[in-house]
Amino acid sequence: METDWGQLSHAYGPADDIPGLLREMESEDADVRAEAAHELFSALCHQGDIYDASAAAVPHLARLALHGPGHRPELLRLIAGIADGDGRPAERAAARRAVAEALPALLPFAHDTDAELRDAMVLLVTALGHPYALPLLPLLRARLAEEPDPGVRGRVVTALALLEAGDGGWRHGLLADPEPRVRLAAAEDLLRTAGLPLPGELVDVCARAYAADPHEREDVSWPHPYRPFTDRLLEDDPDAALRALARGVPLAHDVNERWRDREAQTLPWALAELDGAPWELYRLARTACALPAEAHPRVRERVLPYRGSDDPAVRAAALTVLARAGSAEAVPEVVRLVEEAPGLDGTVRAVTAVTDVFGAGALPVARAVAGRLDAAPAQLVAVLARYPEVAVEVVAHLATLVRERTDGHGGAVAVLGSLGPSAGAVGAQALRAAATGDAGFPVPTAAALAYHRVTGDPEPALALLGAQLAEEPPEGLAQAGELGPRAAPLLPLVEPWLAQRHTVSRRGRAALTVWQITGRTEDTVEPLARWLVADDFWPPVETPALPALTAIGLLPRFAVDRLRKVAESARRAAHDLFVTGGPHPDYVLRSAVRELLATARVLD
């Protein structure tokens, strides 16, 4: 029966494009097939999700694998992905039935002369799982005995371990196999079910087998309950991960990203793994932030060769590391970087590092930034807020940035506001124009708040925030409090959002603003604490409720246990998604939470 593809769907909508992609898979042009295979995988098994079009496509994919001009392994892997895909129960059942019906014709590939096809078939049989794969266990056992390719044989070990019932005692006999990938597969599966602490002998087999034949560990998506040995170590047993690290498995930064206070232990291997890529250097900079001072010379020595790189991105990353490792020699080098490449993202990171570490000692860097304002992005301009003695000298230039809306105008607004009255009439005029002029100006509220800090006049900010708070949903709820008591006229627009019927974040933002305006705690501490520990905002790395409650000095008891886990856990509560080369956000969070718990009075 003809498939009505227009009535089916895939990841991107109606599946009426699938017939065309299937036809392209019959092309004699390998590039055309490669592109079609990529689009089919993306549409039919998108990040592991399947759709009603996925099951309908399986017979066509199987036919192409059998009779098409090429890309057979890719087609078999797509069929395997559909067999093990996530979706609605009916879609999953239909997909597995379709794969089970197609499988008998595909079984000869398990004995093909092409190792890649045999490998794909092992994955396909495993992905189909119980009960469909059980009759094929003898085939897998035969492949284990006969398979000449070490990589495929290792896959067969994993497949049998996932599919067979029992204690899998046969795997112990493979721990001394001459092929590293076979040893690794056997030990890996034994580790999957081992208790904690993980057995050192199994960790050693995995580590030494991997070190003997390093390879990409993410090239196959095995079905549940498979776990790579590195995941088991990293997630459950950091000491076992360190043991594997010492035996040649490159896990230094992975250990540091999952567990706290391991930087000194992993440092030798973090230095050994470094090959000079900017992202690796920024990870090392983050590590340096957590190291004791006596470890910094080793970091500096390892990074020095990259300081003179011809690539500004590498040089900026190296200077970031050197600054975080306490090298004052980084300061004049960062001055030169600002002069040569002010618009580089790495320049912002290097400047941030030297100003964080050396403070007033980085004054030459601030002067270099002041000399390159026309080419500086907002983040770089904003650094001048730390150096008012430099910023006050370039008020006219900062005002020009605001008026002309250059790339740095947001930073210029922040710096002028930080100067307060020292920004003078020139700064005030530019900020007022930005706050009250063209509605299309990108930062009118920020300019109005800065204008208040410079002149003491809240009227432009009150007008803007009043209009925003009258909207549904209200904008400016978290900004109004920056005016302090001068925002009292806005309270009738803010206080209704304290009511229980509103979302935890709206209540929290309203509470923050009410406290900033009035100093009240009787109706603001509870919503602030609810916001702080809410699942939707956990971990609270950027939630302003944390510093607010610390300043207030009060904490409801319902928030204590969750916060105490953040303060005491050996495992990270927050992760560093962007790795900018600064302190790990988890350590910043831990310090802030510990301060709150140590200083706040607990309310019953």
Based on CA atoms alone, the radius of gyration comes out at: 30 Å
Q: Count the E strands.
A: 4
Tell me the helix content: 55-70%
Categorize the overall geometry.
globular
* Helix-and-strand structural type: mainly alpha
Q: Biggest β-sheet: count, sense, barrel?
A: 2 strands, antiparallel
End-to-end CA span: 69 Å
Beta-strand residue percentage: under 5%
The chain-level mean pLDDT equals 95
Unreliable segments of 5+ consecutive residues: none
Tally of alpha and pi helices: 33
Spatial strand arrangement across the major sheet: 1-2
What does the model show?
The chain is an all-alpha fold and 604 residues long. Helix content is 60%, strand content 2%. The chain has 33 helices and 4 strands. It has helices spanning 18-24, 30-44, 52-67, 72-83, 89-106, 115-128, 137-146, 150-163, 180-193, 200-212, 229-236, 238-246, 252-258, 263-273, 278-289, 296-307, 312-324, 330-340, 345-358, 363-370, 378-382, 388-391, 395-404, 409-419, 424-436, 444-455, 459-469, 491-494, 504-518, 525-533, 545-552, 560-568, 585-599; strands at 9-10, 13-14, 554-556, 601-603. Strands 1-2 form a two-stranded antiparallel ribbon. The chain has a two-stranded parallel ribbon with strand order 3-4. β1 (9-10) and β2 (13-14) form a beta hairpin. The longest helix has 18 residues, at 89-106. It is globular, with a radius of gyration of 30 Å.
